[in-house]
Amino acid sequence: MTREFLLSTLVVILAIFTGYEVISRVPSILHTPLMSATNAVHGIVLLGAMLVLGAANTPLLHALGFVAVVLGAANVFGGFVVTDRMLEMFKRRPEGPK
C-alpha cells in the first residue's frame, strides 16, 4: 500500500464520521432547508459523474461511470421528493363543507 492510498483512505473515513456527526445533530425544523442544500450538492455530483462517464475509455470505467450517474440521479430525484413531502406538511388543508 502506498502512502497516498492510506492518506486517501484516512480522509474518506474522517469524512464519513464528520458527516454522520453533523447530520445526526440537525434539528427536525432545519431538515427541509438542509435537504434543499444537499440537492444542489447532489446536482454537482451528478454533473461530475457525467463528465467522468464522458471521459471514460475502458468498459470498466464506462460501467462505473454509468452506475455513478444512475445513483446520482436517484439521489437528486429522491431528495426533491422528500423535500416536496416535507413542504406538503406545512400547507393548509382545504376546509370541508360547513
Characterise the protein shown here.
The chain is mainly alpha-helical. The protein has one domain. The protein is flat and about 75 Å long. α2 packs antiparallel against α3. Helix content is 79%, strand content 0%. The relative contact order is 0.09.
Task: List its traits.
mainly alpha, 79% helix
Describe the structure in brief:
With 98 residues, this protein is mostly helical. The protein is built from 3 helices and no strands.
Shape: flat
Residues in helices, as a percent range:
over 70%
Count structural domains. 1
Could you list the spans in which at least 5 consecutive residues all have pLDDT below 50? Answer: none
> What is the alpha-carbon Rg in Å?
19 Å
Order of helices and strands: HHH
**SS elements, strand count:** 0
Q: SSE layout and pairings?
A:
Blueprint: H1 3-24, H2 31-55, H3 59-88
